[in-house]
Fold Ornithine cyclodeaminase family protein.
Amino acid sequence: MIHITEAQSGAAISHELAFKAVRSALIAATSSEAATFPVVHGTASDPQNKFTVKSAADGSLTGLKVGSYFPTNDAAGLPRHNSIILLFDQAKGRIGAIVEGGKLNAYRTAAADAVATDALARADAQVLGLFGTGHQAAYEAQAIARIRPLTKIMVVGRNADRTRAFVSQLRRKGLPAEVSQAETACRAADIIATATTATKPLFQADWVRPGTHISSMGSDAIGKQELPPELFAESRLFCDLPEQSARIGEFQHADSETPLTAIGAVLTDPAKGRQTSEETTIFDSSGIALQDLYIAEAIIAAAAS
């Protein structure tokens, strides 16, 4: 059995590797051979500490990821998020590989945003409105900066001190970040990315300019919500997996008749994506297991080389 430790996966991962693996996974998700199974949500003994189990299979891979979110880790100075990926031996049904992936998961999630933004945002997009100042938001900013020449990152956060500290962190990484208010960021942004644990909209629909691309990265359970539903009727909606997005993703708040397009279909046929420069596009990432399986396979290959 292969075992990739957290230290090994953290050393091997990069935004480039994650982008390639996640792009392949999102395309694979549209294949007739792919099967994504219902997400299992659970809690630890302390109910504020939560975990999810996501599993999938396609023509070459079968496995699952267990992801945890433990806010009580703050007191111990440890990350809130962690994950582990298990790949099955297809011939024997045993576990063929274990990949520890706390850091890996942050790259994987940001890569989904980058892949969708690259496919859907206007080619001349330069200003990012970023909602969120947590661990994941920093990876989102770095991933998007790789695929568009950002001249400004307008950061919106709930806590003023934390937002200023986060902006300083991004600036130290060479990113053009500044503190902003929600309305100001939305009215200026070409791209909006939300990476929060919100349960109600973070901004108003009429603040968004025509032609903006929006990625909702935080809604992955019933009750979570980052975007105003009024925006959906006048936008084109994309997601990683339509049936999952409508059940636990951002589009649980959309009308059931609203058409949802899998981003994998756009990656294989760009004509299914953005049609005009004035179109507003929205991508919902509820997070699918094939992303985890593909990135684990890529990490195993990198470790072996």
